[in-house]
Amino acid sequence: MSTYSLPSLPPGEIISLLSEWEMGNVTVEDLKNPTSEFVCSLYSAFSDSIDPLGDDPLQVSFGSLDLLENPDAHISSVQIVNLYVKMKELISSICMMNFTMADLIRPKRDRTIKFISGIINFLLFREEKLNLMKPIVDKVNLLEERCTELETKKSELMLNISEHEMRSKTEQPMVDELQAEVNELRQTIQNLNKQQMSIRALCQKLKDKTKEIDVKISGAELKLLESAQENNKLSSSIVQSPDKLQGALEEKKLIQAEMQLSERVAMESVQEKSSNIEVYTKAVTKLSKHLQKMQSLQELVNSAKTVGKDIKDLKAKLNDEGRMDMSLEAKIVEYGHKAEQAIELERATKMERDLKHRETLKELSNVKSEVEAKLRELDLREMKVQDMVAEVDNINSKISAIREAGLAKQQDIYIKFEEIFSEVHSYSKSMDDVLLRIELEKV
């Protein structure tokens, strides 16, 4: 068992510390001349301060009172015995001094100051150790609060995940349907892209043909200008050479026929081009409609992707929370081991307490038997005292009777004394008269 140094504190320091701890109003006179009531109240305050959750030593249980024949006559003795057991255990754990019942019933100044100093030193030592343990306790409390916060957060995340899973399960048919539509639209887009490529190739061919036709038209116009110039020349030379004129006219007719043919071909190409343009415009409108549908479907796909991404993020958060839960579970297991150690320590303490309780009960039974024997002796003494009191009363009555008889005799003697005194006074007066007469006769 570990022991502590037990210096005796000065009375002033004891009084200041007790007033600081609010353990009663103690004076120097109480410490110099301690009484049983003072030490019982002070030791009870020390017991309440050291073990605030324990039983009050001055409170007597009904079970303990049921063991006694006359419980009303033994309440104070049982209270003193309870306080004695607690203080003996406390003093034996603090120092090597032996605490006896006389230290409660007839306390001595030196031993009382020694016990009070030891308990105060123990309280100061305990307060210092508790202050050192306070940061650890605060840290444990913060960890417990953090665990509760994480548990609530975990439950909220699990609830959100379950809601997302339920929502994904309910929206899965819609997603499948949209996926089928998206696949179909992708196929349609591929087909339309192929048609667009073919239409672009056809447009390129038509552009090439249009360029060729434009070249031909420009060549025909050039030829028309040349023919107009030649016509002017021919008109100027008609009078000069009619044969040449006839030849020029025939050549002009041929040129006009070629120009009409080329114009017809150009008109046909223009009509074909305009019809192709109409086809292209219709195809473009259809493609724009398909593109709008594709954009809406793409938006749906993007929303589905965002939902999937949110689900992945939630799963990642859930994994993080799971890892955090594993760390918390490890801490909980560690705290469980500590709790088991504390439970084992508590069991050992309970066993030791039960052992001490049994020893205390044995001591209490011994004290009870001693008290009952002393009570029997006290009863015998009380009976003897009553007999003696009766004898004293009888003697007092006799004394009072003798005193009254003596007073009566004194009164009678006083009366007789007064009678004798009056007779003596009258006799002396008569003798004075006789002597006076004798003297007068002599004269």
TrEMBL record:
Residues 4-140 form the Kinetochore protein Nuf2 N-terminal domain. GO terms for biological process: cell division. The keyword Cell division applies. One of its GO terms (cellular component) is Ndc80 complex. It is found in: Chromosome, Centromere. The keyword Methyltransferase does not apply. Residues 140-209 form a coiled coil. Keywords: Cell cycle, Cell division, Centromere, Chromosome, Coiled coil, Mitosis. Signal peptide: none annotated. Pfam families: Nuf2. Belongs to the NUF2 family. This is Kinetochore protein Nuf2 N-terminal domain-containing protein. It comes from Aristolochia fimbriata (White veined hardy Dutchman's pipe vine). The lineage of its organism: Eukaryota, Viridiplantae, Streptophyta, Embryophyta, Tracheophyta.
